[in-house]
Amino acid sequence: MNIDWDAIVKTYDVRGLVGKSLTTQIVAALAAGFVDELGAAGKDVVVGHDMRDSSPEFADAFAAGAQARGANVVSIGLCSTDESYFASGVLNAPAAMFTASHNPAAYNGIKFSRAGARGISMDTGLAAIRDRAKIYTETGIDEVEVPGSYRDMHILIQYAAYLRELVDLSDIRPLKVVVDAANGMGGMTVPAVLGHASDLPQLPLEIIPMYFELDGSFPNHEANPLDPKNLVDLQKAVLEHGADIGLAFDGDADRCFVIDENGQAVTPSAVAAIVAHREIAREKRANPKADVTVLHNLLTSRVVKEVIEADGARAVKTKVGHSLIKDQMAATNAIFGGEHSAHYYFRDFWGADNGMLAAMHVLAEYGSQDQPLSEFAKKYNPYYLSGEINSTVSDVAAAKARVQAAFADRADFDEFDGITATNKQELGKPADAGNWWWFNVRASNTEPLLRLNVEASTEADMVQIRDEVLNLIQQKA
Which DSSP category does 229 fall into? Predict the structure, then answer.
């Protein structure tokens, strides 16, 4: 077989076009490589999948490959990605989740976890799994003498009950909440966690559902709330229903975006600051003398670090990246971690990310006071962010060099993750005096793209810096 492994095995997961770059034969080989690399023969391996048309067949192929190499497959069936992390954590077992997250319907993929929902990336096992799978596609999968077993496990209600234990919503004021599930897995998890689709006590929430029907063809809009066009329906619905808040989930429901009562987005950085504030307070109540650490990636707003430190915790800046942050959560014993892309990580959720849990924290904090969300969120969103802007470039290195040359006299640079420029302070002035700005330019791991993020203390500075840097990036050689 002529397989472009580099095209489907990405830095943090597997992703490809169904029936072309990703087939059942490849999936079975990856399963065999996964079991071998993790030493999972004779042990449980969790397999779950989203609502894409190809997901059940791929999950079955993975189960067959895993069993052939001796793993005992625990099938959790239809689930969100954070449900698969829950199962991995509860069972202390490796897991494979079939989803292409926010990608269009023609794609599918696999998100892998080690036991206890720990991450796997190219540097921590994924490359070895790929290399083992290569061999299995060429030679066939050698079945062990005693193949593994297979059993079904239903975890949705257990998952919902666990989240309810972590965040108590029973005493908040009544809220009208519009939820756009984008025909993704939120259509199953939201009713169980926040609604009436379980035996759990009723919450003071009126849930107005949008696109809750599970449909991997995404008939209403792409399941990618990071793209503003996919929030338009939710924004309109919040206004039409006079709702207090809107929530938008991506396809596998591990990310959540928030809309205020005026139909305006509450930035993921503001959500990260709100959740950090709550988690720090909770930890300090439980362990008053504990040293508390919270992670934030370098692209979150400056306010996130400010809130963490004002609440008496240590803010640790990380690079961008799912598995990397999971590893950092474990290494630093951080209670929480937030990313600009709306991934939120919790120590009490095995260090894994959980969009539903982040949404519950926002509902709890917002619902415990009387201000509308637009006013309540202002203190967590005092600065001006560009959001991530992607540019296709023919020569990434040359574009970055142009940017550095143009700002050499105005900024200090670091290369912690891409290049980050921070405005130089005027001589004799304190570090935080006057206006400030920063921007980051990062190359994509898989495409000829440069990603730009800008933040400033004033909107005029943000726009000016954004436009100047974009012009430099997109300038023809």
Answer: G
Please report which helix (H) or strand (E) contains residue 114, including its range.
strand 107-114
Report how far residue 62's alpha carbon sits from residue 19's, in angstroms, rounded to the nearest whole number.
15
Give the closest residue to 298 by CA, choosing from 424, 439, 435. Answer: 439
**Residue of 54, 101, 269, 301 marked active site:** 101
Picking from 242, 210, 257, 15, the residue whose alpha carbon sits closest to that of residue 112 is: 15
Residue 433 pLDDT exceeds 60: no
Q: Which of 282, 277, 275 is nearest to 256 (CA)?
A: 275
Q: Taking the mean position of all CA atoms in its chain, how far away is CA 150?
A: 30
264 close to 231: Cβ distance less than 8 angstroms? no
**231 in helix, strand or coil?**
helix
pLDDT computed for residue 477 by the predictor: 56
Tokens of 70: 């001796």
pLDDT digits (tens, 9 = 90+) for 311-363: 999 999 999 887 789 989 999 999 999 999 999 999 999 999 999 999 999 99
54 tagged catalytic: no
Residue 289 token pair: 């003398």
Longest dimension (CA), the chain: 75
- To the question of pTM greater than 0.90 for the whole model, the response is yes
Contact (CB, 8 A) for 290 and 284: yes
Compute CA distances 216 → 20, 27, 100, 250, whole Å.
18, 19, 10, 12
Query: How many angstroms separate the CA atoms of 189 and 207, rounded?
Result: 13
Q: Quick check: 297 and 322 in contact, CB under 8 A?
A: no
Closest by CA to 463, choosing from 442, 437, 441, is: 437
Tokens of 146: 């005693």
Phi, psi of 277 (to 5 degrees): -55, -45
| Closest CA relative to residue 81, chosen from 117, 44, 30 | 117
Angle, CA of 252, 272 and 186, to the nearest 5°: 20
Spatial distance between the Cα atoms of 442 and 418, rounded to a whole number of angstroms: 4
What are the tokens at 55? 């997901």
Q: Which residue has the tokens 């809107």?
A: 246
391, HSE (Cβ side, Cα atoms, 13 Å): 22
Tokens 């004033």 sit on residue: 458
Which residue did the predictor score with more confidence, 6 or 371? Answer: 371
Cα 299 to Cα 341: distance, rounded to the nearest angstrom: 9
What is the Cα–Cα distance from 372 to 329, expressed in whole angstroms?
33
Place of tokens 């919040």: 238
